[in-house]
Amino acid sequence: MKYRNVIKDKIVILGTINEEADTHITPLGKMPGMKIQAFAMLSSMAHHRVLAASGAISLLLTILVCYFSAWVGVELMRRYPFTYIYWIKVYYFAMTAFLVGASFLLFSRFNYYISLLLPLVGLALVETSRLQYKWIVMMLSKHTHWKFIKKSIYYVEP
């Protein structure tokens, strides 16, 4: 009670720092449980209110990313037919890095969280669908005489 002015209006954590029994492995290395709690409290106080984007915003972002990726894939195929596969990989890496970076900045700067689950899964599905479509066009052009197959941008003479 003699030193109550020192801890007035402060958060006090009681425990031990030097006991091996309360040491835990973290991404930052071995750390006492008291430090983990202190860092968690500090993080909670710094980000006291996290706003989460609704599922509709995530879905809208997914639709935009998928349509843009499909368009980029078509343009890359038209412009670089022989090196398309390399350019599309560069595009997907850049788009993923952009989405993750933008999400990180929104969260760290404005405490705004956007789930990237749907946009990133959509990005992967666009490329998988494109590969399947290319395979279907190739097989149909090889084994049928359908004329509409020749109108596909992925058509290759058998």
State the main characteristics.
158 residues; mainly alpha; two-stranded antiparallel ribbon; two-stranded parallel sheet; 61% helix; 8% strand
Q: Which regions are unreliable across 5 or more consecutive residues at pLDDT < 50?
A: none
What is the rounded distance between the termini?
Answer: 90 Å
The overall strand count is 4
Strand order of the largest sheet: 1-2
Relative helix content: 55-70%
Any idea what the shape is?
elongated
Please work out how many helical segments DSSP would assign. Answer: 5
Largest sheet: 2 strands, antiparallel
Radius of gyration: 26 Å
Element string (H = helix, E = strand): HEEHEHHEH
How much of the sequence lies in strands comes to: 5-15%
How would you portray this structure in words?
The protein is built from 5 helices and 4 strands; from the N terminus they run αββαβααβα. The protein has helices spanning 4-7, 33-46, 55-79, 84-110, 117-143, and strands at residues 23-26, 29-32, 51-52, 112-113. The strands form 2 sheets. The chain has a two-stranded antiparallel ribbon with strand order 1-2. It has a two-stranded parallel sheet with strand order 3-4. β1 (23-26) and β2 form a beta hairpin. The protein is elongated.
Summarize the structure.
Helices cover 61% and strands 8% of the residues. The chain contains five helices and four strands.
Secondary-structure topology with pairs:
Elements: H1 4-7, E1 23-26, E2 29-32, H2 33-46, E3 51-52, H3 55-79, H4 84-110, E4 112-113, H5 117-143
Parallel strand pairs: 3-4
Antiparallel strand pairs: 1-2
